[in-house]
Amino acid sequence: MLRLLPPLLARLARAQPRAQPRAPVRRLRRGGGPAAAGGGQEEERFVFLEYEPDPAEAAAAPLREPEPLREPEPLREPEPLREPEPLRGPKPLREPEPLPEPRREREPRRERRARGAAAGIPGTPDPSVPPSGVSCSGCGAELQCADGGAPGFVPAEKYRSLASDGAAGLRGAVCQRCWALAHHGRALRLQLPPDEHRRVVSEALRRPPRHGRGPLLLYVLDVLELPDPVLPQVPALLGPGVPASGVLVVGNKVDLLPADAPGHLGRLRRRVAEACARAGLAGAALVDIRLVSAKTGFGMEGLVSRLQRSWKCAGDVYLLGATNSGKSTLFNTLLRSDYCKSRAPDIVDRATVSPWPGTTLNLLKFPIINPTCDRIFRRQERLKEEATKTEDELSSEEQKYLNHLKKQGYLVGRVGRTFQQQKASPVVDFDPDMLSYSIDEDPKHTPKKRVEREEFTHNEVKDARWCFDTPGIVKEDCVLNLLTEKEVKLVLPTVAIVPRTFILKPGTALFLAALGRIDYLQGEKSAWFSVVASNLLPVHITTLSKADAIYEKHAGHELLKVPIGGEERMKAFPPLVPQDITLKGIGTTEAVADIKLSSAGWVAVTAHAEEELLLRAYTPKGTTLVVREPPLLPYISSIRGSRIAGTAAYRTKKPPSLVENLKTTGSR
What we know:
The protein is of the alpha/beta class. The protein contains 18 helices and 20 strands.
């Protein structure tokens, strides 16, 4: 019977029709993963057919005889049950295996720079090496590697590498301090005498007159610091032994202040003229007053035209001013203008610019171009042509640069160059033999050739007049002298200031970080307080009963932000000292006075007409508090939005920027 079973099964299989094999279906979802609950995602069906043999191949293949069925194996007897094992104690817990270390992500560039600055700047001095006699191209100090705390220090190993080619290798190099300022934003402390900056300036001004005429002094004044604390010292610098021909006052950083009303620049110029008169600069000694922005270029073309028209090339020019007034920025802008020789920007390095006070330590200079009649005519033609252009007619790169400057300041200018040195096309030194090598040797890399630095010829500088950048005169009783590098960056405004206006009732207090405080003690009505300071400094409003507790709790922490460092930082920081102020309002649209909290900023006070206010202002001990009457921006309270419900603050409002020397269209 078992022998007949396989043939019967084979006949039955041939008698039934062959069924087509069903192709499997693979479903993929468009989300890259399983479908969400609810089946809301679409599906795509991809059918992959299996291989089917050709009918001719299937017919030609011989049929295999089916294998005979095997005899069933006999059943095994069940194994006897084992005796249960005795209960054992619990197994000791294994120590958890250590988790794999997470993948280390690459630090952001800003954090790496901050960590490198915090770790310190390495450098080894070598007292046996004499000074180089070459000045740092960033700050003007003499390069040396003998004393790490003195100006111009370069680590000994770097100094020897540069000095291997003699003085030519050191030209264009910067000291360790300028390198740290440029790359890490860190100011290395130097061992300088207190009056070192003043001594350098005084010696420079007392040099014998060159070319038969004394120098012209460009005093750079920060309009945010009016009244300027160093301006009254200028007549003392211009003593009997100083052969100066006059002073041209340059009011810098006007781009940071918003236009509170039409004609605000004329009002600012009058405030600068009043400050010069109080300092004793008037008459023939005061050549002119110009308002510029050395950073955005506003007013710079007019300053260059004024210098070339009146001063021409009669003598040298010295840039003077207090620390952080923008002298080095002005020096760099003049270096890229028509005021210097055409080859000077390719030879003279830019000065180091930093918010840290006293960046420049010695004299930096560039040669002044001789403004001949032909050059002045060509320059005027260029300015006329540029004044006919609209912003839409500029190239994409110029528009991008202007948009960047508009974010930086309210007033923007374009500084161009009429006289440019034509550069020769570079010649590529190609040696095809250096690219050929046998299979048994490695390719050789040619050492980089040292680029020869351009130098002025003797004829270019023998009768040249020079523009000098001098060290800044340190401001006494200034809050910046009490701050660290990180705190100075927060306090000094570098972009357009957006005014913040608050309406306060009697019995309230206003904090400007932990650097200043104003209490509204007495008054019948509310008054408006407009803060003009760095946008990074916080403003906090509270009641008089809570003001002392808030200062004790939050000074040095995030709420008041500056100073930074918590309780330990505040132990070394001087306490706030009060000063009572009485003001009388002149109207709800015009401020009566500015309360200047040293260099941290000021608060413009606007009150009802004939309303008497009793205020108490605080600044750190050892700093100067100034009540400025009349205010610098009397209509500043009008630059505000709507009142924020439930608070004393108004919404901020930023006026549009203005581009100088461009034709405006009707849509603008």
